[in-house]
# Entry
Amino acid sequence: MIGTAEAVTRAKVLDRLRLGDAAFRQVTRAAAFGVLVLLSAVIISLIGGSIPVIRTFGFGFLVSESWNPVTDKYGALPAIYGTVITSFIAMLIAVPVGLLIAFFLTELCPQWLRRPIGIAIELLAGIPSIIYGIWGLFVLAPFLQVTLQPFLIDTLGNVPGIGLLFAGPPYGIGMLTAGLILAIMVLPFITSISRDVFEAVPIVLKEAAYGVGCTTWEVVRNVVLPYARVGVIGGIMLGLGRALGETMAVTFVIGNAHRIATSLLAPGTTISATIANEFTEAVGDLYTSALITLGLILFVITFIVLAAARYLLMRIERRIG
Amino acid sequence: MPETVLVSRYSARRRRNIIATGVALAATALGLGWLVLILGSLLWQGFSGLSLAVFTEMTPPPGSAGGLLNPIVGSLMLTIIAVAIGTPIGILAGTYMAEYGRYDRLTSVVRFINDILLSAPSIVIGLFIYEVMVAPMGHFSGWAGGVALAVLVIPVVVRTTEDMLTLVPNALREAATSIGLPRSLSIMHICYRAARAGMVTGVLLAVARITGETAPLLFTSLNNQFWSTNLNAPIASLPVIIFQFALSPYKDWQSLAWTGALIITLTVLTLSITARALASERKS
# Structure
């Protein structure tokens, strides 16, 4: 038999525990909601900041080429162009190289070397972008100025058509250099994701292919790649998302010129480099708003790319189980 | 088919295989070589400027010697704010996703959004904090910088907390419930303890992530050439000082920028190696 007094304290304690339990649950739920609120707040604040520009220029902002703080005329086209071109160059280099490294790591590399190389690549993915930027500015750009760029101008520069892409003096800095730096930066991401999805290919599939006499390359080309296709594309999109939004590595070497030059050797700008270079110096509401609108455009582009990447990677995760 | 055709076809396939293998080897060498080159020049340039003065003196005016004391302290303060704000929110959100709503609609939406925040361009986060903190307050401040970094900490911590709690065996939870422990207490005293190493790894990774972040600080905490620990005023930080000094025409400043870059890289590498060691300790 429990005494009445004891029963009352017992009920009190139980009530307190029940209350604490419910409170903790609600607090964690609120935190989870907080993540959603955070993303919505980012979008709303960016849209709010770009209202002056939308009111003044409308959709013309997206296609206008002028960028003149003195006359308060702004257009996003050169920055969008630079962002797309530098990321494209980066992908053109990083995707094949990354896939080949993944091929090496999963099929050719001796077992004892796999872990060290894998760890090295993952550690390098964590190096901050400003390090790549400072290296690009002081080491890569001067090097390209006296080697690769004069070479490109003398050879491809004379070919009709594509020659336009390699015209003009070698500045060292410019869109090509920015693209190269980006390629080095996203290489670890693409490599490590492709390696993971290559490794997820069922061994029996590969063994069957080897069993009928395929060479290593044929196994990778005809069995591994088709099987891992979705995951590889997801990894590439993830790398692309990084490249599009990358700021510091690009800002150092792009040259910050608001124009669309056909030559890849010419200085240009990207969305993120423009914001990084000009935001603190922007005077006037319209100038600030133009930069925030650029941020909004960047966010929308990367959101779409990253969402697609996550969707594809989620699909492959589900298949692996 | 005549045997010569078969043999030549076979040797063509072998040739193709050898070429592909060679190209893959070359790509690996190229990729790793590039990265070795970067680290090499970083060590070379950074160590030549490294001295005790770097840790004891303030940033100099152009043309004279000095150190990086104020940006180092500033970076530490910003990191502490970011971790202090970001970690609890991240852990709580991760807890909901793994413990209460593992199969919820909300959880899968949050997971998707969180993954996007994880790789969203950090400069956009800087713009966001500028809009919601710097503009209303009317001035740049250390607090704004810290909060901007906290926004980057949250997704990393959410992700690792969720992953680590999911790994905790259900038998532990059932045992806790069977002796009458309320859910919240069993999470705090049983699950958190079981997943501790992994959760610490997550925080370390988050710190590594924000250590070199420059873009979100450019227009939140701005920069400061002088000693200041006032969080209501602009404050110096290592990445922003590196950005400013590297792009300056002065040799002393450029050399300090390299040294700062070396300090950041070594910090990041130490953090991520520690995190890895912790994670693998768990596994074994």
In short: The two ends of chain A are 53 Å apart (CA to CA). Chain A touches chain B through 90 residues (CB under 8 Å). Chain A has a mean pLDDT of 90. Strands of chain A lie at 67-68, 73-74.
